[in-house]
Amino acid sequence: MLFQCQKLILLIRAYCVKSLEGDLWLLRKFSDCTTKFVVYKLELDFQNMVRRRGADGRIPVRTLDRGASSSAAAAEPTGYPGGPYDTSLLMKYEHHVARHIWFGEERGPKKELKVAGHGLKLTSRVPLALPPQMESWVSRSGLASLQRTSLNKIDTNLVSAFVERWHLETSSFHMPFGEMSITLDDVACLLHLPIRGIFWSPQDVTEELAVELAVDYLGVSQGQAQSHVRSCRGSYYKLEWLYDIFVHHRAASSWAYATRAYLLMLVGSTIFADKTFTLVEARYLLLFRDLDGCSGYSWGAAALVTLYRYLGDASMYSCKQLGGYPTLLQCWIHEYFPTVGKRGENWNPAGNCGLPRAMRWSYRQGVLKVDDLRPILDELTPTDVIWRPFEDHRAWRVFDEICLYRGCLKWGETVVPYLPDRCLRQFGYRQYVPSPPLDCMMATDIDVDWISYHQSVVDVIGSSSVATTPSEVVDGYLEWYYRVSHPRLVPPHRNAPREVPVPVYDAGPSDPDWARVSTLIRRYLRQVNAEEEDPQFSDLFEALHISRSH
């Protein structure tokens, strides 16, 4: 094994020496990694460290259960090609976009989703400073941070690639190495929205009531309100109309009317953005009837419930649009997956002075399309993830244990499962096989469960322990996961003709080094569009095979 580790280093160095000076980056990149790699691997027995995926991207059935009988191991798997063998978890997989992608079926001529991003318009509509009379109300509402957090544009290909891995049954993204999700803690750190607070249960708002609300709380005439609601063809207000009302009442010093119009425009352009791209539901005006009391809501839960709902819709093959706040999703990707997608960085976390973390990022036009990103996501390993990206942000947002609440979240009539036990590695705990998801249709006391969250937190972390390595999982987790989920979206024969080895990530703390070396080589070969048949890259491809097979 010493010979193979040394050979790996020599192959990488051989390529760097015979390549152009631009490739000296690779030598620098690997110098530390490969040295540590040799030291770690000499101490380990390499037997059974790597298992190989079959044609559908999974570990063969015979390797799944160490104690299983030979007859059980020989049983034919059921389920979907490329999808779960065990269909008890992902009950809606038949209609999921991933099932169709496996067979090369796209949503339509345009593979990426249409995404509701209002960043550019919001930038022009949010003033540099509000009048003091308004600033007080906006600040106390808990929504002030939303004025500056939106990305100017959204990378629809990047966002779409992750949406294809979302499953509404588990409220999580199904990655090649397990589940991940956008948590309440993520919302708190990225957007600085309050997590604690009450849920909102609205009354039905007809077109007639939408007119009355506009007259009473936005200060418009009856005729103007009727004409506008009629033009919206439902109980909606146009975001542009709300902005005009804000400007009018600000000039007239009608501060309450101006503030309500401004806040409704703000949430309609961010956390409550829908798939109309121009409207906001009139019922949300009820949230701002009492400007002194709207700070009591859990705005963080509201943002999450709305995004979860639209992610669930957009993960279905028949859906072609994504609502909710896409900035929250894209900035979450930037924080957890530093090597996926293109982004601009406005400041380093160490230099942050208390701003929401979403403001760290800016839009940069990506060159990869959604079908380019699919195999890239298929090849991700736990070492490609920053599992706890906000530990350097705790001076401004202390971790709140309510983020480990397991139960249903509610906003309006929308109820979604919130399941931190499925993404424990994001909280610093060892991941175990989680309980079956909650059936929110059967939930009756959601508000009570939310208030008395302590017991659910105990249940979530009581079965785990603090992780010794960031990506640690219990024995058997990956085997279970590969049976109930889909480790990849693209069949290996389509974009990756070579068999792809799967490291057993929970075998020990040194395992990520093998995965990291393989990932670095693979990423570099992708960047230079290398072909295996090209003799210039023969050394690197041989190094890649060595790192993948041991």
UniProtKB/TrEMBL annotation:
Residues 142-481 form the Aminotransferase-like plant mobile domain. GO terms for biological process: meristem maintenance. PANTHER family: PROTEIN MAIN-LIKE 2 (PTHR46033), PROTEIN MAINTENANCE OF MERISTEMS-LIKE (PTHR46033:SF8). This is Aminotransferase-like plant mobile domain-containing protein. It comes from Pisum sativum (Garden pea).
